[in-house]
Amino acid sequence: MSYPQQGQGQSHQQQQAYQGGYAPAQQQQQGAVARGTGINMKRRNPAGVWLGLPIITFGIYGLVWFFKVHNELHEYDRRIDNAATNALLSMLFGAITLGIWPLIMWVKLAGRIAQAQRAAGLQPSCSGGMGFLLGIIGFGTLYYQIQLNKVVDRYGETPAGQQVSLVA
Prior knowledge:
Elements: H1 12-19, H2 25-33, E1 37-39, H3 46-56, H4 60-76, H5 84-92, H6 100-119, H7 128-136, H8 140-153, E2 163-165
Antiparallel strand pairs: 1-2
Helix pairs in contact: 3-4, 3-8, 4-5, 5-6, 6-7, 6-8, 7-8
């Protein structure tokens, strides 16, 4: 927990209350709405995401990964819509649409990753076309996880779940 610094316009009583373990209601609301910060994502081993865990779990981890990545992208930057449930449902019930709905969600993931790269101050390098082509031959999750790790690596040693600042 970080404490407010001296001279930020808070009264002495508010500073003591905050240091005592709680923040006033007004401060809590402002922290949740901040546009310039987000929650750092988890850095995953691309080979483990691509080959290791899906083999061990008979493919179930691929669904878990797809859900978690969408959820983490939304927590990282609230401007990225929370499509975690939609993404999971697209994979579970995609056969109804002959695989078109999962394909659309798969390509849209590249746009969300590129948006996160922009928010981290990086040049966006994630491409939906490349993700689609690599996904056809089985390397899609490897590509997407490498692209996601670029965003996580931007923040150095900041652990997953910690608040980080967004550049754009």
